[in-house]
Fold each of these.
Amino acid sequence: MTEKKIEYEEWIEKAEKDLHAAEINLKQSLYEVSAFLSQQAAEKALKAAYILKYKRLWKIHDLEQLGEKVDAPEGIIKICKELTQHYILTRYPDEEEYAKEDAEAALKQAKEVIEWSKNRLKKLMENSKQKK
C-alpha cells in the first residue's frame, strides 16, 4: 500500500512532469507546446507553495499574482509575468509563431520558478515545524 501524498507534493510532482514534457516537446520542435507546458510547470510549482502556505488551492492562471501571494522575490515575479503570456498565446492559432528560442527561454524560466518554489516549500515546512 502506498502512502497518500500531501496535496502540495502532488502539485510539485505534476510541475516536474510538465517540465519534463516541455523538454521532450522542445526536442521534437513543438515549440508552442513546450512553452505552454513550461508555463504550466511553473504554475503548478507556485500552486504547491500556495497550498502549503494557505491550506487551499487558488484556481488562477496568473503567475504574477501567484508569485506575489507566496512571497516570491522581484526576479521571480518578473519571470512569472513573462511566463503567464504563454498560457494564452500558445492556445490560439492566429497568434505569433513560436521559435525555438521562445521555447528555450520559457523552459529556462520555468526551471527557475520550480527551483525557487521547491526552496520556498522547504522554508514553509521548516516554519510550520517551528510553530509546533
Note: The radius of gyration is 15 Å.
Amino acid sequence: MTSGFDRLSVKPGLPPMEAKLVDALPSGPGWQYEPKWDGFRCLIFKAGDEIELQSKSGKPLARYFPEVVAAVASLKADSVVLDGELIIPIGDHLSFDALQMRLHPAESRIRRLSSESPAQLMLFYCLVGDDGESLLDRPLVQRRSALERLYAIFRVPRFGAPRIRAVKKEQKHYHVDWSLVPADAARFENLVAGHLLKWVHFQQDTLGRDVELRYFRDTDGREVDFVVVERRSPLLLVECKWGDTDVDRSLRYLKARFPDTDAWQVSATGTKDFVSPDGIRVAPALRLLTGLI
C-alpha cells in the first residue's frame, strides 16, 4: 500500500537531530542559540492531506494533538517536513504535565484538553526545501531560511542599552499573516507586532527615519513585548495583554528608566482607558493602532 509520504525526500521514521553535551557554549560569528523548551520533540510530515506528528522515539503523536494537526493542514504548501517541539503554555510558563495528560486513550478527553489548553509548535527549521529536495545536509541557516519562507515570518531583535541589564536572546518571530497563530493572546500580540512593523517601515521609507522594532528582556526576567527605537534610543514602549489587568511591572520598570518615552499597555478585550501615575497609557489596542495610520 502506497502513501503520500513516499514522495517526500525526507520520510517518517527519521530520528531527530539531538543536542550534544558540552562544557561551554560555543561563541563567535555564525552561531545561533535555542533554549531548551519544556516540551515533546516532534517531527512534522505533510504530504497533501496526510499528516504525521512523530515523537523523538518515532511513535505517532497526531491523535493526541488534533489542534496541531489542523494547524499543519491549514498550511498552503502541499508538502512540508518540519522539526520542532510541541509545547503547551499555561500562564507564563510551559507545562510538561499538560503535555503528558494528552497521552490518553479516550478521544473525548483529548478533544476537551485540546480546547482548554491548546498545544503549539515551536518550530526549529525545515527539513525539505521549496523545491522538495532534502535539506538534511544543509547548514542551519538554510534550513531556517526555508522555514521563514514557508511561514512568511518576520523577526524582532532584542533591545539593549547601557543603563539596563539586557540579556542576549534569540530574535522573536512573528507571522506576516497573524491569523495563522492559534492561541488568542499570541495571535493578538502578533497582530500588534504587524501593525507596529508597518508603521516602522512607513517611517523608514517615506521620512527616512532611523527607526526599528525591537523587544526587551533583561537578566532578571523582565520583558516588554515591543520597543520602537530611533537611532538606538527608545521612542515607544508597548506591552500587550488580553484583557484588563494591572499595569505590567516590566513595563513600569522600563518606563522608569526612560521617562520621556511614550509607554502603552494595550488590551484585546479590555475596556479601561486611563494614564497610570507613572505615565503609562492603559487602553484598548484600537486606541494605539488607529493612531499609527
Note: The CA atoms of residues 94 and 161 lie 29 Å apart.
Amino acid sequence: MAITTIQRSEPGYPASLATNLGGQAPESVFALGNVKILQGNRLALFCSVKCPGNLILQTYDLARHLRDTGVTVISGFHSPMEKECLALLLRGKQDIVWCQAKRLQDKSMAKLYAEPLAAGRLLILSPFGEQIRRATQDTARLRNECAAVLADGVFVAYAAPGGKTEAFCRKVLSWGKPLFTFDGPENAWLLAIGARRYGMTDRTRDMTSSIIMSARQAGPVRECPEV
C-alpha cells in the first residue's frame, strides 16, 4: 500500500488545518490507508502520560463504548493510556485515524496493520515528510493539534495541571472546539476553564451521540472532500 501525499494547494487537503493552524499548518499531509474516513464525524481522544487509576478504568470503559458504538476515533495514540485505547479500538470494526509525529513508514506499518488497512477502516496520517525521522516534543505538539483540528470534538481523559496536555487543552478551547472530560476532582481545573463534563451516570444515554451532537451545535469542522 502506497503513501498518498496531499498538498495544501490540492482540493483533498483538510481545510480545517489551514483555518485553525494558520502558518503552522503543514504544507503537505501524508496518508496511508482510506482517506475517505476524513469525510465522516470524528472524536479525538487524548490523555496525559500519567493518569490516575480511577480514570484509567473509566477510559477503558469509554474506549470500549466508542468501539462498540462504531465511533471514528482520531488520536496520536502515543501516551500509555492512548496506546491501550488503540489496542481496544483495533479489535472493533469502526474507523480509526492515527496521527504520527514523524514520517510515515509504509512498509513496516502496512505489514503490522495489514488487516485494518486492507479493510479500509484505518487511516494513518502524518504532517511530516521524509526529513522528520524521529518524533520530538515539537512534532508531537503539532501532531496532537492536527488530530484535534480534524475532529468534531475532543475528549481528554486526564490532563496533568501544568503539563503539555494542559497547554494543548487551552489551545483547543481557544479555537472554540468542544472539549470534553470525565467529571471528577482530578479534572476540576479543566472543567473550570471550559471543558464539558461527562460523568459515568451519562451511560444511561448514548454518551457518544451527545458528544458528537454537542460538537455539531458548536460548529463542526469542514469535511475533507474526496480525493
Note: The beta strands are 4-7, 28-33, 43-46, 73-75, 96-99, 122-126, 153-156, 179-182, 196-198.
